[in-house]
Structure formats: C-alpha cells, structure tokens
Design brief:
single chain, 160 residues, alpha+beta, 3-stranded antiparallel β-sheet, two-stranded antiparallel sheet, 5 helices
Length: 160
C-alpha cells in the first residue's frame, strides 16, 4: 500500500481495503480542489500594483488634459488678440496703466483712449507687448486667462 500507518490498520483488521481505497480517493480529490481554488484572503501584491498603476495613469492623464486645455486657451487668447486688436498710434495720446508693480504707457488715438476710460475697450498683454481690444473681446479673454487682461473699466467714467 505505500503508507505504513494504513498497512498497520489493515493488518490489525480495523479497516478493510475498500475503506483505504476510498480514503486515498477522497484525499486526492480534496487536494485537487484546493489546488485549483485561489486563496481569497485579500488583494494580492499583483492586484495592489495594478491598482497603483491605474491610479498613477489616471493622475497623469488628468495633468495632460489640464496642460492641453491651458495650451488651447493660450492659443485662443493669442488668436482673439491678433484678430481684434485696435490700432495704436505712436504719435497719439499717451495712456498710462499699471502692469504688476510698474506703470506702463501706450500711445493711442484720442477716441481709443476715451473708449478705454469709458470701459468700451480694454488693454491686454500680448506676445508683442500690449494691445487694445474691444470690451467684448477683453471679457472673452478674461474668461480664458484672467492674468492677461490688464485694464478693463466697469463702464462708468471715473471722476478725478
């Protein structure tokens, strides 16, 4: 038989051959079932690594989308400024405004300076320096990037 304990039980007459054969069969069947059944104790190391990788990819995709959105906004701002820029006149009237902590000056025609003062036009920062654009365009630019619009009055002329 192979198992000395089973041989001793057979010689003593406690069990017969049929019972020994059934015990071996049952043992083999339970071993086979346990071999195919995965342990359900908790997430495995592989599952944890896959979950961490998914989370990392998700965060990277969000960053990529945010960067892409920012680039699209910058391109739209540039296009809006280039298409809707009002003409500046180097011999015109000077208009002073604040950019950060510095006072800057641009020269514009008298009617455009009045439009800026009344809030019908605004001053925006562009790649080429500063540009004067109509109020509607300045509001569109402000919705895409608020730090680009430097001067946009509320429409009421200020009394000095």
């Amino acid at each position: 038989m192979g198992n000395p304990f089973q041989d001793q039980l057979l010689k003593a007459g406690v069990v017969n051959k049929k019972q020994v054969k059934k015990a071996k069969h049952d043992h083999r069947v339970t071993k086979k079932k346990n071999k195919n059944k995965p342990a359900k104790e908790g997430p495995t190391k592989l599952q944890l690594e896959q979950a961490a990788e998914k989370e990392r990819v998700k965060v990277l995709n969000q960053k990529r989308r945010a960067e892409q959105q920012q680039q699209e906004n910058q391109a739209q701002i540039k296009q809006l400024i280039d298409q809707n820029r009002l003409k500046q006149n180097s011999r015109g009237e000077p208009y002073n405004f604040v950019d950060g902590t510095k006072i800057k000056r641009i020269f514009v025609a008298g009617d455009i300076a009045e439009q800026i003062s009344c809030g019908k036009a605004g001053i925006v920062r562009s790649a080429a320096g500063y540009a004067v654009v109509p109020r509607k365009i300045a509001e569109q630019i402000a919705s895409r990037g608020n730090d680009v619009v430097l001067v946009l009055h509320d429409g009421k002329p200020e009394d000095y």
